[in-house]
Amino acid sequence: MTTIAIWAVLGYLLGTVPFGMILARVMNLGDLRKIGSGNIGATNVLRTGNKKAAALTLILDGGKGAVAVLLARHFGGEMAAQVAALASFFGHCFPVWLGFKGGKGVATFIGITLAIAWPVGLLVCATWLGVAVISRYSSLSALLAAGMSPVYAFVIGQHNLFILLVLLAILIYWRHWPNIQRLRAGTESKIGKKG
User: What's the confidence (pLDDT) of residue 4?
Assistant: First the structure.
Protein backbone atom coordinates (compact mmCIF):
# COMPACT_ATOMS: atom_id res chain seq x y z
CA MET A 1 0.00 0.00 0.00
CA THR A 2 2.92 2.34 0.68
CA THR A 3 4.23 1.76 -2.84
CA ILE A 4 0.79 2.45 -4.31
CA ALA A 5 0.47 5.65 -2.27
CA ILE A 6 3.90 6.84 -3.41
CA TRP A 7 2.98 6.31 -7.07
CA ALA A 8 -0.34 8.03 -6.56
CA VAL A 9 1.49 11.12 -5.29
CA LEU A 10 4.20 10.99 -7.97
CA GLY A 11 1.64 10.41 -10.71
CA TYR A 12 -0.39 13.38 -9.51
CA LEU A 13 2.65 15.65 -9.37
CA LEU A 14 3.70 14.66 -12.89
CA GLY A 15 0.19 15.39 -14.10
CA THR A 16 0.18 18.88 -12.58
CA VAL A 17 2.92 20.24 -14.88
CA PRO A 18 1.01 22.81 -17.04
CA PHE A 19 2.95 22.48 -20.29
CA GLY A 20 0.42 24.51 -22.27
CA MET A 21 0.83 27.52 -19.98
CA ILE A 22 4.61 27.14 -19.88
CA LEU A 23 4.89 27.02 -23.68
CA ALA A 24 2.45 29.91 -24.12
CA ARG A 25 4.58 32.02 -21.80
CA VAL A 26 7.90 31.00 -23.38
CA MET A 27 6.56 31.64 -26.91
CA ASN A 28 4.81 34.90 -25.97
CA LEU A 29 1.39 33.65 -26.97
CA GLY A 30 -0.49 35.35 -24.15
CA ASP A 31 -2.38 34.06 -21.13
CA LEU A 32 -4.22 30.87 -22.06
CA ARG A 33 -6.76 31.64 -19.35
CA LYS A 34 -7.90 34.64 -21.43
CA ILE A 35 -7.91 32.89 -24.82
CA GLY A 36 -10.72 30.79 -26.31
CA SER A 37 -12.09 28.39 -23.72
CA GLY A 38 -9.56 29.47 -21.09
CA ASN A 39 -8.30 25.89 -21.00
CA ILE A 40 -4.60 25.03 -20.60
CA GLY A 41 -4.60 22.14 -23.09
CA ALA A 42 -3.46 21.69 -26.69
CA THR A 43 -6.80 22.55 -28.31
CA ASN A 44 -6.83 25.96 -26.68
CA VAL A 45 -3.13 26.52 -27.45
CA LEU A 46 -4.07 25.92 -31.10
CA ARG A 47 -6.51 28.83 -30.83
CA THR A 48 -3.51 31.14 -30.45
CA GLY A 49 -2.68 30.27 -34.06
CA ASN A 50 0.62 28.62 -33.14
CA LYS A 51 0.49 25.03 -34.43
CA LYS A 52 3.99 24.23 -33.17
CA ALA A 53 3.06 25.20 -29.61
CA ALA A 54 -0.15 23.19 -29.83
CA ALA A 55 1.70 20.11 -31.09
CA LEU A 56 4.32 20.40 -28.36
CA THR A 57 1.59 20.78 -25.73
CA LEU A 58 -0.15 17.68 -27.05
CA ILE A 59 3.07 15.65 -26.95
CA LEU A 60 4.17 16.87 -23.52
CA ASP A 61 0.74 16.51 -21.89
CA GLY A 62 0.50 13.01 -23.32
CA GLY A 63 4.06 12.30 -22.33
CA LYS A 64 3.55 13.08 -18.66
CA GLY A 65 0.72 10.53 -18.47
CA ALA A 66 2.82 7.94 -20.29
CA VAL A 67 5.88 8.56 -18.11
CA ALA A 68 3.80 8.20 -14.94
CA VAL A 69 2.50 4.83 -16.15
CA LEU A 70 5.82 3.47 -17.39
CA LEU A 71 7.81 4.47 -14.31
CA ALA A 72 5.16 3.12 -11.93
CA ARG A 73 4.92 -0.16 -13.86
CA HIS A 74 8.70 -0.60 -13.87
CA PHE A 75 9.22 0.12 -10.19
CA GLY A 76 5.88 -0.78 -8.64
CA GLY A 77 4.00 -3.23 -10.87
CA GLU A 78 0.70 -3.20 -12.73
CA MET A 79 -1.49 -1.90 -9.92
CA ALA A 80 0.92 0.97 -9.30
CA ALA A 81 0.78 1.77 -13.03
CA GLN A 82 -3.01 2.01 -12.99
CA VAL A 83 -3.00 4.15 -9.85
CA ALA A 84 -0.34 6.45 -11.34
CA ALA A 85 -2.39 6.69 -14.53
CA LEU A 86 -5.50 7.84 -12.68
CA ALA A 87 -3.47 10.16 -10.45
CA SER A 88 -1.67 11.82 -13.37
CA PHE A 89 -5.02 12.42 -15.05
CA PHE A 90 -6.32 14.05 -11.87
CA GLY A 91 -3.12 16.08 -11.66
CA HIS A 92 -3.66 17.50 -15.13
CA CYS A 93 -7.33 18.29 -14.53
CA PHE A 94 -6.90 19.56 -10.97
CA PRO A 95 -3.36 20.93 -10.51
CA VAL A 96 -2.69 22.28 -7.04
CA TRP A 97 -0.45 25.01 -8.51
CA LEU A 98 -3.33 26.49 -10.52
CA GLY A 99 -6.01 26.43 -7.85
CA PHE A 100 -7.17 23.00 -9.06
CA LYS A 101 -8.27 24.52 -12.39
CA GLY A 102 -6.52 22.54 -15.10
CA GLY A 103 -7.17 21.00 -18.49
CA LYS A 104 -9.71 18.48 -19.68
CA GLY A 105 -7.22 15.62 -19.82
CA VAL A 106 -7.53 14.39 -23.39
CA ALA A 107 -3.84 14.43 -24.32
CA THR A 108 -2.91 12.96 -20.93
CA PHE A 109 -5.56 10.27 -21.43
CA ILE A 110 -4.10 9.39 -24.84
CA GLY A 111 -0.60 9.16 -23.36
CA ILE A 112 -1.90 6.93 -20.59
CA THR A 113 -3.63 4.54 -22.99
CA LEU A 114 -0.59 4.29 -25.26
CA ALA A 115 1.65 3.48 -22.30
CA ILE A 116 -0.62 1.13 -20.40
CA ALA A 117 -1.78 -0.88 -23.44
CA TRP A 118 -0.52 0.40 -26.79
CA PRO A 119 -3.13 -1.45 -28.93
CA VAL A 120 -5.87 0.33 -26.97
CA GLY A 121 -3.96 3.58 -27.30
CA LEU A 122 -3.67 3.22 -31.07
CA LEU A 123 -7.38 2.52 -31.38
CA VAL A 124 -8.12 5.57 -29.21
CA CYS A 125 -5.86 7.71 -31.44
CA ALA A 126 -7.49 6.35 -34.60
CA THR A 127 -10.96 7.08 -33.21
CA TRP A 128 -10.01 10.62 -32.19
CA LEU A 129 -8.38 11.33 -35.56
CA GLY A 130 -11.21 9.84 -37.60
CA VAL A 131 -13.91 11.78 -35.79
CA ALA A 132 -11.82 14.98 -35.88
CA VAL A 133 -11.30 14.75 -39.64
CA ILE A 134 -15.01 14.17 -40.26
CA SER A 135 -16.54 16.54 -37.70
CA ARG A 136 -13.77 19.10 -36.97
CA TYR A 137 -14.86 18.99 -33.32
CA SER A 138 -12.05 18.21 -30.87
CA SER A 139 -14.50 17.68 -28.02
CA LEU A 140 -16.64 15.18 -29.94
CA SER A 141 -13.50 13.31 -30.98
CA ALA A 142 -12.36 13.10 -27.36
CA LEU A 143 -15.76 11.98 -26.10
CA LEU A 144 -16.08 9.17 -28.62
CA ALA A 145 -12.46 8.04 -28.21
CA ALA A 146 -12.76 7.96 -24.43
CA GLY A 147 -16.15 6.28 -24.52
CA MET A 148 -14.86 3.53 -26.79
CA SER A 149 -11.66 2.87 -24.84
CA PRO A 150 -13.16 0.39 -22.31
CA VAL A 151 -14.81 -1.45 -25.22
CA TYR A 152 -11.48 -1.66 -27.06
CA ALA A 153 -9.76 -2.98 -23.92
CA PHE A 154 -12.43 -5.62 -23.42
CA VAL A 155 -12.42 -6.75 -27.06
CA ILE A 156 -8.64 -7.20 -27.24
CA GLY A 157 -8.53 -9.05 -23.93
CA GLN A 158 -7.17 -6.30 -21.64
CA HIS A 159 -9.95 -6.91 -19.12
CA ASN A 160 -7.81 -5.69 -16.21
CA LEU A 161 -7.94 -2.16 -17.67
CA PHE A 162 -11.70 -2.00 -18.07
CA ILE A 163 -12.48 -0.28 -14.75
CA LEU A 164 -9.62 2.22 -15.10
CA LEU A 165 -10.75 3.19 -18.60
CA VAL A 166 -14.39 3.49 -17.53
CA LEU A 167 -13.33 5.83 -14.72
CA LEU A 168 -11.19 7.93 -17.06
CA ALA A 169 -13.99 8.08 -19.64
CA ILE A 170 -16.47 9.24 -16.99
CA LEU A 171 -14.05 11.95 -15.89
CA ILE A 172 -13.53 13.10 -19.48
CA TYR A 173 -17.31 13.31 -20.00
CA TRP A 174 -17.63 15.27 -16.76
CA ARG A 175 -14.83 17.67 -17.78
CA HIS A 176 -16.47 18.09 -21.19
CA TRP A 177 -19.99 18.72 -19.93
CA PRO A 178 -20.04 22.37 -21.18
CA ASN A 179 -18.76 21.10 -24.55
CA ILE A 180 -21.55 18.53 -24.66
CA GLN A 181 -24.07 21.30 -24.06
CA ARG A 182 -22.56 23.41 -26.84
CA LEU A 183 -22.47 20.44 -29.22
CA ARG A 184 -26.17 19.91 -28.61
CA ALA A 185 -26.84 23.62 -29.16
CA GLY A 186 -24.66 23.76 -32.29
CA THR A 187 -22.38 26.44 -30.82
CA GLU A 188 -19.22 24.40 -30.20
CA SER A 189 -15.99 25.78 -31.70
CA LYS A 190 -14.31 23.74 -34.40
CA ILE A 191 -10.65 22.74 -34.54
CA GLY A 192 -8.36 25.54 -35.66
CA LYS A 193 -10.69 28.40 -34.81
CA LYS A 194 -8.67 31.20 -33.20
CA GLY A 195 -9.63 32.53 -29.80
Answer: 92
Instruction: Report d(CA 59, CA 21) in Å as an integer.
Output: 14
For the chain, counts of helices (H) and of strands (E): 10, 0
**DSSP readout, 81-113?**
HHHHHHHHHHHHHS-GGGTT-----HHHHHHHH
Phi/psi at 30 (nearest 5 deg)? 100, 180
Q: Residue 28 falls within a domain, yes or no?
A: yes
Classify residue 178: in a domain, yes or no. Answer: yes
pLDDT 10s digits, 118-153 = 999 999 999 999 999 999 998 999 999 999 999 999
Q: Which domain covers residue 54, as residue numbers?
A: 2-185
**pTM beyond cutoff 0.85:** yes
